[in-house]
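Summary for the steering committee. The consortium agreed at its last meeting that each partner would contribute one worked example illustrating the joint modelling workflow. Our contribution is presented below. We chose a case with several input lines so that the handling of multiple components could be demonstrated. No manual editing was applied between input and output; the record is shown as generated.
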Amino acid sequence: MLGELESGGRFVICDLEAGVGAVVRSDQADVVLAVAEPTVKSIEVARRAVEIAGERAPVVVIANRVRGEEDVDAIRAVLGEQELVVVPEEPGIAAADREGAAPIDFAPDSVGVRALVTLAERLGERAPRAAA
Amino acid sequence: MKIAVAGKGGAGKTTVSGTLARSLARAGHDVLALDADANPMLGVSLGVGPEETDRLAAVRQAIDEGEMEHQRSVDELIEGCGTNAPDGVRLVVVSRIDRADPPCP
Amino acid sequence: MVAGTAARLLARRGHSVLALDSDLMPGLAVSLGLGGGADTACPLDGAAERGEDGRWRLKKGLGPVRAVRRYAVVAPDGVKLFQSGKLPPEGTGAIMSSLQAYYKVIHRLPRARAFADWAIIGDLPAGPRQAAFDWAPFAETFLILVEPTWQSALTARRVARVVRSRERSGAVGLVANKVADPADVGRVEELVGEAVVAAIPADERVLEAERAGAALLDHDPFSPAARAIERLVDELARWEPPARGSIRDVERA
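What follows is the complete predicted structure of the assembly.
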């Protein structure tokens, strides 16, 4: 699907199917974000995603639902060589999830949302803005 | 630029995808958000709500089951299986819901 | 947990019960009371082979009845458990022959006369796609477990749509799970848009059993959840045709 799309000046963000198989099939991505919770299984899936995608595109690891330094360390121990963005576990995002609302609407000032907005700004700098 | 968001189920892919898409759109970028998950929920993280998110999934299921004509091109899919999310993000459900990948890759 | 408990309760009521586990993640063996040790990567190792054309087939002389007899393990109360295999760290490649054999067997089970009067319960992996393949197409009764959250409710709607889109869709029953207060049942019905046939309470005993790697019926047969599953099994006994169904567990979705 990604292969059929011309991104042109726009951003195409693809929320892949869970697991490693989807990474194998999405070889047209310019950037891959590997989201990992601080659990062994989740880190393992991210590690394999990095292994597969890392050969053809830059990969950013997103350490999600992080509760403290130990959690970051656990992820860094396996994925330390990758660029890392930390999204802390916080009530705002969890509440947005319960309510069925967008985190950016429900908890715009939460640390987690702000970390993702900052990542978006950095990604935005890598591509030209659409002609408005 | 094409960005793929990967991870284990429940890791938070959808939260990341939705929030990034909205942020980029707010910064003035043209953004297309593709939901490739077999159980598409991206609409909720984008802010269109559970009902509209489910409506899109139902449209997708109806197409897959042959009750509706198949969209031939990517543009038709964006039109037929898509909805507008806040900040001008266009959301499209691109996963097949009814059919499983073969059990063995 | 519901599939394993229901399977054992059906066996106690005198049914011959076959439990099918196609989930690559562990779960059903433990909830049947076999403990974590019963999970193996390749339970059907050697049951399938590649022909000269490269296609998988069951070994010569091995039909579905013989395969179940040879490879199914016996769980408490005499439930037979037939498994496809659990995902080893090196990926699905290693369990290919086991998975292939599993699907070849279960797709022929419905026509196997030896199992005509058995209660067959398939515990499906999470997600709406699973309702379209696996054992699901053969199920006569389809139970969809749903928690009182919108995520679970949307998944349940999708599963129900997939099941009902089939020609012979069988009966579909919505089961509210992890119900914490009476209003949750109404919430589930409102979120999914249809009535529930049974409600299973949120129960600390279930969590304890899961943590201990024990079956709920062995851990605490009188727990509120176990009693609710008993009522569910009673309810199913009143349905026609008798329960020979799939339990689609959305709790992990």
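Residues 89 and 97 of chain A are 12 Å apart (CA to CA). The first strand of chain A starts at residue 11 and ends at 15.
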